[in-house]
Amino acid sequence: MNVALWIVQVLLALAFAGAGFDQAFNYDDAQRRLPWVGALARGAALTLGLLEIAAAVALVVPAATNTVPSLTVLAAAALAVLMAVAVVFHSRRHEVAQLGFSAFFGVAAAAVLVGRVVVAPF
After folding, report:
1. How far apart are CA 78 and CA 30, in angstroms?
2. Phi-psi bin for 15: left (phi > 0), alpha (psi -120 to 50), beta?
3. Cα–Cα distance, 95 to 120 (Å, whole number)
4. With 80 as the cut, is the pLDDT of residue 66 above it?
5. Is 114's pLDDT higher than 90?
6. Which of 9, 14, 11, 16 is nearest to 82 (CA)?
7. Nearest CA to 12 among 112, 120, 115, 95?
8. Which one of 8, 30, 94, 113 is at 20 to 30 Å from 71 when CA atoms are compared?
9. What pLDDT digit, counting tens, does each position of 10-39 carry?
10. Do 60 and 52 touch, CB atoms closer than 8 A?
11. What is the DSSP code (8-state) at residue 93?
């Protein structure tokens, strides 16, 4: 189970780092590809993107280096909450595809949270 959790953690980190980078540093391009980004002010997108990048790093680095591995659990919890908020955001905008992505990543983050607290803690 530990290996499966590591795989999910790394994949989540890659996904959130990429999405966060787009929101934070490629706002105009992201806005063209993803209409919901345009609903965010540039400053909000920058903040959200930077937080996603920080959470992506925290999903892997603290546990991999055995330096405050509880930050990995905190990052998983934060991303699960963020994706719950994203589900509400996208459902209000009737963005079914984005709603599905948000739900999927939220469930994955929640699985890491539960896995690292209950099933295979550090």
Report:
1. 23
2. alpha
3. 35
4. yes
5. yes
6. 16
7. 112
8. 30
9. 999 999 999 999 999 988 888 888 888 888
10. no
11. T
- Assigned token pair, 90: 């996208």
Q: Which residues contact 10 (CB under 8 A, 6 or more apart)?
A: 59, 60
Dig out the tokens for 11 from the structure: 């994949």
Check residue 31 and give its pLDDT. 84
Place of tokens 């290996």: 3
Residue 58: both structure tokens together: 């925290």
* Token pair recorded at residue 22: 């787009």
Domain count, the chain: 1
**Vertex 2, ends 57 and 72: CA angle to 5°?**
25
For the segment 45-62, what is each residue's pLDDT rounded down to a tens digit? 999 999 999 999 999 999
Domain of 48, in residue numbers: 2-119
